[in-house]
Prior knowledge:
The complex is a heterodimer.
Chain A: H1 2-8, H2 11-45, E1 47-52, E2 55-60, H3 64-72, H4 74-86, H5 89-105, H6 111-118, H7 120-124, H8 127-142, H9 157-163, H10 168-186, H11 189-200, H12 204-212, H13 217-245, H14 251-261, H15 266-292
Antiparallel strand pairs in A: 1-2
Helix pairs in contact in A: 2-15, 3-15, 5-11, 5-13, 8-10, 11-13, 13-15, 14-15
Chain B: H1 2-37, H2 59-67, H3 70-101, H4 107-119, H5 122-134, H6 141-149, H7 162-169, H8 176-188, H9 193-200, H10 205-216, H11 218-234, H12 237-242, H13 250-255, H14 257-265, H15 273-305
Helix pairs in contact in B: 1-15, 2-14, 2-15, 3-7, 3-8, 3-11, 4-8, 8-11, 9-10, 11-15
Amino acid sequence: MKQKVRRKMSYQTKKQIYGFLFILPWFIGFLLFFAQPFVESFKYAFQKLEPSSQGFVGTYVGLDNFKFAIFRDTAFLRECVNSLGNLIQVPLILIYSIAFALLIKGKYTGRSFMRAVAFLPVIIGSGVLMQIIKEDVFSQGIKGGNSVYLFASGGGLQDIFVAMGLNQGIINFINRIISQIFDLTWRSGVQIMLFLAGLHNIPEYVYEAASLEGAREFEKFFKVTLPLLTPMILLNTIYSVIDSFSDYGNQIIQMIYSTTFDQVRLGYASALSIIYFFMIIMVLGLVYFIIRKYIVSPDE
Amino acid sequence: MRIRKIKTILFKIAKYMVLAALAYQLLYPVLYMISMSLRAPVDAYDPSIIWIPKNLTFTSFKEAFQAMKYLAALKTSLLIGVGCALLDVASCALAGYGFARFNFRFKNIFFGMVILTLIVPTQTIILPFFLNMRYFDLNGLIGVIGRATGGPDSINLIGNKISFYLPSLLGAGIRSGLYIFIFRQFFASMPSALEEAAYVDGSGPLQTFLKIMLPNAKNGIVTVFLFSFVWHWNDYYLSNQLLGTAARTMTVALSSLRVDLAAYIGGQTISDPIGIVTRMQAGAILTILPLFILYSFTQRFFTDSIEHIGIK
């Protein structure tokens, strides 16, 4: 009987089952290592957790954790605002990485070298290492010592500025901008990569058609390249926002981490991370809502 | 005509100047690290030294090497990096293929879940995740077995590399969602005639996947392997917590290098950034050296594959 049923199963049903079997390992992992901790995190946020011999025992405290975070913990709200302020970098990252991707796309001598260099930030531009590089490279500039970022040591820009009669305030301001640019370029590795992938996906004949109709270079960019890149722009915006919110150097991330593992206020840390999560979701929703209107589907 | 020619030449020159500037500013930190780490500590901020150290020394490397307990950290990082990267490739290729080539119920909802895992920062779930590993019981299953056989209710996986391998095996490791996404794009862009031929020959879906699709997705595999390796290598928060005090990865060792150096070169240096900078940069170089070696081998596949991960 069973044999018969199996034979009757259509090709479509079979394919359905195979498809699900292919994603089954991921789905188990999703339930065990994402969905469950995610739900637990919500539960903890309403609890006060005390350690015991078999794990932690929680007592329900209602909204206390959230109230404390919003009304009493001044540092948390301030850092939330700072995190939102950091988003100003996102449009700059996008412009920089589109320009970079356009520059390294075509065929020219040194292409493979440039590409290898362009993806360097993907390989080493994260977390602890960046912190160390930034601290040491910029500690010199900030100390007003004898060197500045772009000119290693031995005078360079700093001396020129001093010779020009600029005061220390302006020099510090320039230093800060240079360090911001540095930060920007090192956060753009993945974005450049994705834009490059997007550029390669635009078929050559689209440009040929545009040329035939007499489009100039900048018209080609604004009327062809940019619209066809919109799906990548959305993806990159979302990636950049998430990256900015979950960076190693992000103050809230560090705050949540130290509240969890140094202060062991587990319920409170969970509440912080839940508030933070909703903040991220809201920003992403807003980003999606704004960009969605401009997206050009590649099929049209 | 001639004006046009001059114009293109000028344009070319301008382009190379911009490229050179970009390359310089991306390579600058690496050159800085190399230059710093080879100086004698007293020369660290000598204004008369431009790039080339006056007294070439390797003592900074030696001290950083010892303070980081380099070989132990290298072993831990390699075991986690290579192991997780292989497991990530396996689990995410399977899932990516499922999403790319099959239609099944709730497929879009499932894929939405993949995206959700990318959006939620690790810190939101790190505590329950950590407790999950500390009192690992597979939702009570191990407890049941434990009661039946007199074993423990749960297993402590903290300090054990399984706490890294298991999520990767099940497609839930560091940024696994992104790898599933990449594989999905890869398989979706491959011609379906390949598979149809295999099906006609009587191969099942799994066989077709292993024998036809996987060998053709070499660039995708290399890309995901590289990403997974690099991100496990650079991870700090999870590595620091899940490994406990049992072992340190390279990144964790680097993050505490400032403190650890004290034991090797005397306590006064911690408060003195100038005295420590050459050793810190040496430590940074030691940390990224294996990444560089891997990158130089895989770079070709990696940049090739970039042309295939468009949005479909």
